[in-house]
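thoughts on both lines:
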Amino acid sequence: MSHFLSNLFPEESSIPEQYQLRAYVEQREYLINGQLRQWAGTLNPVASPVYIKKGETLTQKIIGSTPLLTKYEALEALDAAVAAYDLGHGAWPTMGVAKRIEHIENFLTAMRTKRAEVVKLLMWEIGKSLKDSEKEFDRTCDYIVDTVKALKEQDRRSANLIEEQGFLGQIRRVPLGVALCMGPFNYPLNETFTTLIPALIMGNTVVFKPAKYGVLLVKPLLEAFRDSFPAGVINIIYGRGRDTVGALMETGKIDVFAFIGTNKGANDLKRLHPKPHRLRSILGLDAKNPAIVLSDADLTNAVAECITGSLLFNGQRCTALKILFVHQTIVADFTKRYLEELKKLKPGMPWEAGVGLTPLPEPGKTDYLKGLVDNAKLHGAKVMNENGGEISQSYFHPAVLYPVNKKMNIYHEEQFGPIVPIVPFTDDEEPINYLLNSQFGQQVSLFGKDSKRLAKMMDALVNQVGRINLNTQSQRGPDTFPFNGRKDSAEGTLSIADALRVFSIRTIVATKGTDDNKQIFNSIIRNRESDFLSTDYIL
């Protein structure tokens, strides 16, 4: 460890009181069938990426533990969800939209009271900065509000009767069944809730398994889940995926699989389901999003967007820019400016004001990143920035690699961390061919001014990725925009409105438009004899 990083990690006494995590968070609770059960078995220790300095020694902070449940508890949770769904006859799937919204809003009210606890655990468990942890919590609350609004709009549209070719009918969306929801460690609250909330609000029952890291932050919300939903509607389990999730999939009782992680993990789990044609999958997977900086790009803007795009939360985002193609005529100037901006990013602990770079939560990650840097150097790349690639325990200082070529592992692999590979190019076909031949297809960012040149590149790439960003970084938001991907990057589309659709299916009640049939429809609607066939709507 160099002098540059020698004072990165703090002494316990130097941590501001409001951000200290003094009490060990031992979690034994898990939620099944409306009951918070106590686990008496083995616990999994939760290690923070933050190390504590004692003299000349650095010791990793162990902040708590979570239950290592087995397949038996997982199957109990599944049985509870299956019983609550009751083949579509349960209280939750048959409940009116207005009542389901009321349950969701009650949960949101309770969730907001836990903001400080959740934000603190985000910082300590995954190393996310205070600013970004607060943003993640608030954005998740906004997402819930916007989801409720979108469902009300959908319900108003569905209240209409349709007359077509002598038939009269009404189309509404109904739930799919039992959903298994699993989120990622980098956005363990927000990304998880972008599947969990729409799954619930559309009438599905859920088994929810938190991410491998970012687990403890669910603990403050367990009572809110228990108190806000009928028994069995939401069940929360913990433990190793191979001991729990595999057993769930093998039963064939999972109807919806919502997973954000690697394509290998998704493939392995989907293979376990005995009836794959009956499994609806909503997947957010790997990505290797490139930036393509053309010769006429506004370098001030391109550098600013690429810095944030590649290094926000240490590059640990599926939407991060993970490889930068820069035209040969401007690559020297671009790299110089990029390095100048990189110097402004402050390394430190998540609670420090203005911090831009923090420790990484995944064990062994720094060794993996070092291997990518060493491999790139072996094939001709140089680390362009001072202290690039230096390591102190869980901290890896960003490494800007140039020139990168296809012989290097970093050219192909998703690093999911603070390595910035820069590839010089002379022909626009080079970065286009990169995307054509890539196994991933989430997003691309184009930087330039020539409209004809940009339009040509857009047309070449529109069938390769889910989103093309013009003179801006790759990103998920706004949440009203579709979020998807091609190839091994995604399955299904998520946005606020799309999520309501993917967790439901359209069903129609139809009849020939005879006077007698119309009279039956009128009677059912006028007397409010059906929850489905109704012209009532929510304001």
Summary: The radius of gyration is 25 Å.
